[in-house]
Amino acid sequence: GNSVTQMEGPVTLSEEAFLTINCTYTATGYPSLFWYVQYPGEGLQLLLKATKADDKGSNKGFEATYRKETTSFHLEKGSVQVSDSAVYFCALRRMNNNNDMRFGAGTRLTVKP
Amino acid sequence: DVKVTQSSRYLVKRTGEKVFLECVQDMDHENMFWYRQDPGLGLRLIYFSYDVKMKEKGDIPEGYSVSREKKERFSLILESASTNQTSMYLCASSLLGRGETQYFGPGTRLLVL
Questions:
Q1: Does the structure show a pLDDT above 90 at B47?
Q2: Pairwise CB contact (< 8 Å): A42 & B90
Q3: What are the residue ranges in chain A where pLDDT is below 50?
Q4: Phi-psi bin for B42: left (phi > 0), alpha (psi -120 to 50), beta?
Q5: Per-residue model confidence (pLDDT) at position A98
Q6: Is B28 within 8 Å of B3 (Cβ atoms)?
Q7: Do the strands B19-25 and B4-6 form a parallel or antiparallel pair, or are they unpaired?
Q8: Is the preceding omega at residue A31 within 30 degrees of 0, hence cis?
């Protein structure tokens, strides 16, 4: 079935460190892939997305590339800030008529000054 | 800006009570979703709706029902609340179509005593 696996947290980094959060997926066909972010006390916000192989999504310094050959969509940022502290969710849009999504378990990131 | 609002941020209910969680979106989206979020499990789909009066079960519909009488409003009902339904409940909406972004409300944290 369709599923998303992302690296377990928590992840703790110092400010300006390089961030990678791994995400791999299992799906039939070519699902759309997403990263959502949840700041403390808030709902999820879309961070970036990619809808086909080799697409790169980017926003606020974060990037992720849709890699069909490795079924991956790893999230990266070159220099994290304290304000990036949040929970990050990888997700895929299922290839059916229902338009629903599968989410990973979430990775908590803490950035220390 | 897309806005998804949920009727309560925090709720405390007793076992056996009937609980209503309301969600309203203002962007004329066809799709609406209810998820629950639990630590280590990510988001799991309870129910979704792709049109007024239409509903489909998600992955964990047991113990829940939904109502969509108007396009902008999607209600989640716990017929008889139980302690294992203590969770964060997130509502989302989206346009029809593959790859369409889901927009989330701020969530309702429900405690069942």
A1: yes
A2: no
A3: none
A4: left
A5: 62
A6: no
A7: antiparallel
A8: no
Cα–Cα distance, A39 to B16 (Å, whole number) = 32
pLDDT, mean of residues B21-49: 93
Closest by Cβ to B90, choosing from A34, A43, A99:
A43
Inter-chain CB proximity A45 and B104 less than 8 Å? yes
The pLDDT of B92-112, averaged and rounded, is 87
Query: What does the angle CA A7 – CA A25 – CA A94 come to, to the nearest 5 degrees?
Result: 130
pLDDT computed for residue A8 by the predictor = 83
Q: How far is CA B110 from the centre of its chain?
A: 12
**Is 90 exceeded by the pLDDT of residue B109?**
yes
Identify the closest residue of chain A to B49 by CA–CA distance: A98
The residues pairing with B19 across neighbouring beta strands, listed in sequence order, are B78
* Residue B18 CA neighbour count, 13 Å, CB half: 5
Residue type at B98?
A: R
